[in-house]
Design brief:
The model is unreliable at 1-6 (pLDDT under 50). 38% of the residues lie in helices and 20% in strands. It has five helices and 35 strands. Strands 2, 5, 8, 9, 12, 13, 16, 20, 24, 28 and 32 form an eleven-stranded parallel sheet that branches. A ten-stranded mixed sheet has the order 6-10-14-18-22-26-30-33-35-34, with no helix packed on it. An eight-stranded parallel sheet has the order 4-7-11-15-19-23-27-31, with no helix packed on it. It has two domains: 18-129; 209-453, Pectate Lyase C-like, CATH 2.160.20. The chain has helices spanning 18-44, 49-149, 154-170, 175-187, 197-210, and strands at 232-234, 242-247, 252-254, 256-258, 263-269, 274-275, 277-279, 284-285, 289-290, 295-296, 300-301, 306-307, 311-312, 317-318, 322-323, 328-329, 333-334, 339-340, 344-345, 350-351, 355-356, 361-362, 366-367, 372-373, 377-378, 383-384, 388-389, 394-395, 399-400, 405-406, 410-411, 416-417, 426-429, 441-444, 449-453. It is an alpha/beta fold.
């Protein structure tokens, strides 16, 4: 804060004593008298009487003039002093007025600063009170909705679900918590003997997935993650949803499950999950997708999906038809030890990373028509229980079919290899329909089996 510097004080004004004026008048009279006396003395020295009289008159006139002039000078001095005193008084008044104005400005500024600080304090108190009131109201609504969700009546539980949904829609900061509550509800075992619980769980699923679709920006909850590990889900529909680090490990999906058109950010964990029918058509996966140990009893489709960071589907089982047409696999992809019991198609798929299908079993026809293998492709110890069709496939890197088993016809018609495929110890049933890659040597092992040998 600036420190005010006092102005230099003026010299003290002294009052003129009355006798000083009297002395000045007496000095003027004395001066006039001396001049008159001197002139009269000179006049008396004149020889002529007429001249003497004239000179005396002039001397008297000159003496009076001196007295008058001296008095006039004293009057001018007094007038000048009075003017100086007036001007000094005026300057003093102006200085006092300026200091008073500065003081009043300082007082006004201080008063305004105090008032502003008081207003800010009041605003903070008011804001804190409003925030506390809103938090208390929010807590009461949340507590009430959770209590409804734990009610014995299915209808009341449905009301609790919609109360939580509305609470999350009106309060974005509560959305992760509400989603976590709904996920926890779905992870809990379903009550025994409650036939309407299925509808309650369907509603909970719809509440979650409805707000993970970007069709309506106002209803979209972008900060929500799903943790449904071990949950029992019925006809779970995540089509078109945006899933961030979603966890469905060991979840049980009954009915038709769809992730068609969904977008994943982060990891999508489905390890050891079980499905009836599942659809991954046009899934856009920006993170790694884990399907290790998955069990699918019905249809499984991945048509048009894109796995940018790869797919891990090891030790899984697909009992029904499986379709992976026009799928793009980015980083290394693994189907090791997976069993496809029905027809499986990878038609026109693209493997940009290495792919491994070691110890994989195809119970039905395995179609790799027009597939593009950009990186290494491993089919060692792979069992083809029905037709193995690699027609027009393109292997841009090494291909290894060592110790593979072809129990039906194998076709590599118009298949292109950048280098000869490795087929050491691979076996195939004796079938006249086989179409082997060029430069592949086939030897008869016995009446039933053929042995493929590398050159």
């Amino acid at each position: 804060m600036a420190v005010a510097v006092d102005e230099p004080t003026e010299r003290e004004l002294r009052v003129m004593p009355w006798w000083l004026v009297l002395v000045g008048l007496l000095a003027a009279v004395v001066l006039g008298w001396l001049v008159l006396d001197l002139l009269l003395t000179e006049a008396d020295r004149a020889s002529q009487p007429d001249t003497r009289a004239t000179l005396r008159i002039d001397a008297i006139r000159t003496g009076l003039t001196v007295v008058a002039g001296t008095g006039g000078g004293l009057a001018l001095l007094l007038a000048a002093r009075r003017q100086w005193i007036t001007e000094r008084a005026q300057r003093h008044q102006e200085s006092v007025a300026a200091r008073d104005q500065v003081h009043r400005d300082r007082v006004q500024a201080h008063a305004e600063a105090v008032a502003e600080a008081a207003q800010r304090h009041q605003d903070r108190q008011s804001g804190a009170a409003e925030h506390d009131a809103a938090e208390r109201r929010l807590t009461e609504l949340y507590t009430r909705a959770v209590e409804l969700l734990g009610n014995d009546s299915a209808a009341v539980r449905l009301g609790g679900l919609h109360a939580l949904e509305r609470l999350g829609q009106d309060n974005p900061g509560q959305r992760p918590t509400i989603a976590a509550v709904l996920c926890a509800y779905l992870r809990m075992p379903a009550p025994i003997g409650e036939p309407r619980e299925t509808e309650v769980r369907r509603s909970a699923q719809r509440v979650l997935t409805r707000h993970l679709r970007a069709a309506d920006d106002d209803a979209f909850w972008p900060e929500v993650t799903l943790d449904l590990a071990g949950a029992e889900l019925v006809d779970f529909d995540a089509a078109g949803c945006t899933l961030v680090d979603a966890n469905f490990t060991e979840a049980v999906f009954t009915g038709t499950t769809t992730f068609a058109g969904a977008t994943t950010r982060g990891r999508l964990l489905l390890g050891a999950a079980t499905f009836d029918d599942v659809l991954f058509d046009n899934l856009a996966a920006d993170g790694e997708v884990m399907l290790d140990g998955v069990r699918v009893s019905g249809l499984a489709t991945f048509d048009g999906a894109a796995f940018t960071d790869g797919l891990s589907c090891r030790r899984s089982r697909f009992a029904g038809p499986t379709s992976c047409r026009r799928v793009t696999f980015g980083q290394p992809t693994s189907f090791d030890a997976t069993r496809f019991e029905d027809a499986t198609s990878f038609r026109e798929a693209v493997f940009d990373g290495a792919v491994s299908m070691e110890h994989t079993e195809f119970g039905g026809a395995a179609g790799f028509h027009s597939v593009r293998f950009t990186n290494m492709a491993l089919f060692r110890w792979t069992v083809f229980g029905a037709e193995a069709l690699f027609d027009r496939a393109h292997f841009l890197d090494a291909a290894n079919f060592g110790r593979a088993r072809f129990h039906r016809m194998a076709s590599f018609r118009d298949t292109r290899f950048s280098r000869p495929p490795q087929v050491e110890q691979a076996r195939a049933v004796a079938d006249p329909g086989h179409r082997w890659p060029a430069d592949t040597t086939v030897e008869r092992l016995d009446d039933e089996w053929l042995l493929l040998v590398d050159r």
